[in-house]
UniProtKB/TrEMBL annotation:
Species per Swiss-Prot/TrEMBL record: Planomonospora sphaerica
A GO MF label: transmembrane transporter activity
The protein's name in its UniProt record: Xylose transport system permease protein XylH
N-terminal signal peptide: none
Pfam families assigned: BPD_transp_2
Transmembrane intervals: 51-71, 83-103, 110-127, 133-155, 162-181, 201-222, 243-261, 267-284, 312-335, 347-365, 372-390, 396-415
Domain of life: Bacteria
Topology relative to the membrane: Multi-pass membrane protein
């Protein structure tokens, strides 16, 4: 009886059941079984509700196949190039929304803040003669300040984020109208820096192909260095064959995109900036102490507080990031039409930014998502819009289809969380 609580030497150590499966490192499975290991790991992830970006990638592929079958112009270099620019403005706003959603909160003011920021930019540059870069910096600073106001009311005073940002949406819309003045529209120089953000292309073939090569080489180097650090720490790492296979898959995708873009006008500056922002935001979220704190607060706020994390500071900073990214999105929205007007940031901009983040895989419940969600989600939404526009379908139908896609994404997220709880991963 005295030995009942002791562990026998010939028995496997560690937890059993779902907990043990949760602690299992998939790299070991792939190393031991090769290609078969990928299949088993895929099945394990699906059973455990760890779907990642799979649903949105499959959905995007289906959307492209359907619209291409209906209209051969859908996957033409010109349409895809235009699509890559159309996703930028709202996509940048969505990147900021991702940070807020990681806390399980919402920012309903992002659209209004983007419109107000575009108005500030236009007034400073056109009416007051500021240099475009100075005007952009001022617009972003104003938006970050507005985000600070939201964050303080939410984190310090305990006002629900829904109420704070709803009030902000109304207030900053009024601020936008006041800044623009009686005319309601301020035109930006067509040949100016701001307008050039969405009209500039790098027409040299080396630009797109060079970027593709840089991305591929960067991914390979990061994977190799990551493996070296893991081996030095005595924890499982991927095999070199695994790293090479992943690098080849990425190379196929990015060089394919580069080839398509070079068939039209080349690499758009707007797309390049968007991709840089997404990669930088993902790095902050997954590779920095700050990012880990954001996930910790979103996953379990009480546990984060007991771990010594300044929860209030994290909350305030996230809303400031959302505001700043809304401003950047507003700048690109103004660039697209070379003007700032009462319509900038209004209509369905906010809903599309939130929908993109959720459709792309960011959980509404907090604690799960990446900046790439904004990119993938916007690709889905804009692909639907572009495909239906080519078919002459009305906006009403587009909204209904996008709403259905959003609902499907939330349902998948809910079912995924339920599966994770059942398997002991949540």
């Amino acid at each position: 009886m005295a030995d009942r609580g002791k562990h026998r030497a010939d028995e496997p150590a560690g937890p059993a059941g779902p907990a043990a499966e949760a602690q299992f490192d998939p790299r070991l499975l792939v190393r031991e079984k090769g290609a078969a290991g990928y299949v088993e790991e895929f099945k394990r992830r699906v059973r455990g509700g760890e779907l990642g970006s799979l649903p949105v990638i499959v959905g995007l592929a289906v959307i492209w196949i359907v619209f291409q079958s209906l209209n051969s112009q859908f996957l033409s270099p010109q349409n895809l190039s235009n699509l890559s620019i159309d996703i930028v403005a709202t996509g940048l706003i969505s990147v900021g929304i991702v940070f807020v959603l990681l806390l399980g909160e919402i920012d309903l003011s992002a659209g209004a803040v983007s419109g107000a920021s575009a108005a500030v930019l236009a007034v400073l540059q056109v009416n007051n003669g500021w240099h475009p870069l100075a005007a952009i910096a001022a617009a972003v600073a104003v938006a970050a300040l507005l985000g600070l106001v939201h964050g303080v009311f939410f984190a310090k005073l305990g006002v629900p984020s829904f109420v704070v940002t709803l009030a902000g949406m109304l207030a900053w819309t009024g601020f936008q109208l006041w800044v623009l003045g009686p005319s309601g529209t301020i035109n930006l120089p067509y040949e100016g820096l701001v307008a050039g953000l969405t009209s500039t292309y790098f027409t040299q073939l080396i630009a797109a192909y060079g970027l593709a090569g840089l991305v591929t080489a960067g991914f390979f180097a990061a994977s190799v260095l990551g493996n070296a650090r893991r081996r030095a720490a005595g924890i499982p790492s991927r095999t070199m064959a695994d790293v090479i296979l992943r690098t080849l898959v990425l190379a196929f995708v990015v060089f394919g995109v580069a080839h398509v873009l070079n068939q039209y006008k080349g690499l758009p500056l707007a797309l390049l900036i968007f991709l840089v922002v997404v990669v930088a935001a993902d790095f902050v979220q997954r590779r920095t102490r700050y990012g880990r704190k954001v996930f910790a607060v979103g996953g379990n706020i009480e546990a984060a507080r007991r771990a010594g994390i300044n929860v209030a500071a994290i909350r305030v900073s996230v809303f400031m990031i959302s505001g700043a990214m809304a401003a950047v999105g507003g700048v690109f929205a103004a660039s697209r039409i070379a003007s700032a007007s009462q319509a900038t940031g209004q209509s369905n901009v906010l809903m599309m930014a939130i929908a993109a983040a959720v459709i792309g895989g960011t959980s509404l419940f907090g604690g799960r998502g990446t900046a790439y969600s904004a990119l993938l989600g916007m690709l889905v939404i804009q692909s639907i819009s572009s495909g239906m526009a080519l078919q002459g379908v009305s906006n009403s139908i587009q909204f209904m289809v996008t709403g259905a896609v959003l609902l499907a994404a939330v349902v998948i997220d809910s079912l995924s969380r339920r599966s994770q709880k059942a398997s002991g991963r949540a």
